[in-house]
Amino acid sequence: MNSEKENLRKRELEIQRLMRQMKFDELHKSQVYRNLEQELQKIKQNNDILAEQETPTSTVYTSNQQK
Questions:
Q1: In a domain, 33, yes or no
Q2: From 47's CA, which of 12, 24, 41, 64 has a CA 20 to 30 Å away?
Q3: Does the global pTM surpass 0.85?
Q4: In total, how many domains does the chain have?
Q5: Is-contact 37 19, C-beta < 8 A?
Q6: N- to C-terminal Cα distance for the chain?
Q7: Do the beta carbons of residue 21 and residue 66 sit within 8 Å?
Q8: Per-residue pLDDT tens digits for 21-31
Q9: What pLDDT band is residue 50 in, cutting at 50, 70 and 90?
């Protein structure tokens, strides 16, 4: 799972670099740029999901349960 997270992070950085360069080259209105934006959003969502899966959940006690 850690490898998957690392791969997503590398791809995220790669897309961000491409998008920065495309803005600099004034290509930010192109379809390719929009596709990269969409992929970046998906990667960020996947990173959030992976982070949630790695976060330990705490136990919630009700009044009928002993602590």
A1: yes
A2: 24
A3: no
A4: 1
A5: yes
A6: 32
A7: no
A8: 999 999 989 99
A9: confident
